Amino acid sequence: AVVSTQSGHYGRVPKEKEFVKKNINRPRGFIKKVSIATMLAHSKDQIKKPIILTQDKEVRKDAVVWFKNLQEYMGDTKVGKGLKDKERLKRAAEITFNGWQKVCFRDEFFMQVIKQTTCNPKPKSLEWGWKLISAYLYYFPPTIRFQGYLEGYLYKKEKSTDCDSALIPLL
């Protein structure tokens, strides 16, 4: 895919399949095979480990907690459905602040919100997810390693509103 960057230059987005193959934390062992498309699509379930492969102990430990906060912020949990706007805004601010403060969390945060905005059946939840992506992009950039994948995702989402064709061709 060809996309424009902030500077207005156009270029080829690095191969998304390569990013996924090298960087996504896939289940290992005798666990039932789960497709990447399913792993990277909206879920009511908690994650058990970071989405992105990482050696950073803090990210491995905190990713599950931040995903729970994201789900609550987006209204994807029972707790989240009852959040008042002030509490929802507080959750978004906490997540965004941590991404701004700690570079090691950024790609994981982007990937988590991408997961929750892919094939999300709830319009309000989807709206909150896109607001969070906007906040992330305003306050901090993705890492160079993740930038091409994010640009590809945004480009595909701009061109499609259909769940089946939005992210899955990336995989």
| Shape, per Cα inertia axes | globular
> What string, H for helix and E for strand, traces the elements in order?
EEHHHHHHHHH
Relative helix content: 55-70%
Walk across the major sheet and give the strand order.
1-2
| Average pLDDT reading | 79
Strand content: under 5%
Care to describe what's here?
The protein has 171 residues and is mostly helical. The protein has helices at residues 16-23, 36-39, 57-74, 78-81, 85-101, 103-117, 123-139, 144-159, 163-166, and strands at 2-4, 10-12. Helix content is 60%, strand content 4%. Strands 1-2 form a two-stranded antiparallel sheet.
Features:
171 residues; two-stranded antiparallel ribbon; single chain; globular; disordered C terminus; mainly alpha; 2 strands
Could you give a quick summary of the protein structure above?
With 171 residues, the chain is mainly alpha-helical. 60% of the residues lie in helices and 4% in strands. Helix 3 runs antiparallel to helix 5 and helix 5 packs across helix 6.
Topology readout:
Elements: E1 2-4, E2 10-12, H1 16-23, H2 36-39, H3 57-74, H4 78-81, H5 85-101, H6 103-117, H7 123-139, H8 144-159, H9 163-166
Antiparallel strand pairs: 1-2
Helix pairs in contact: 3-5, 3-6, 5-6, 5-7, 6-7
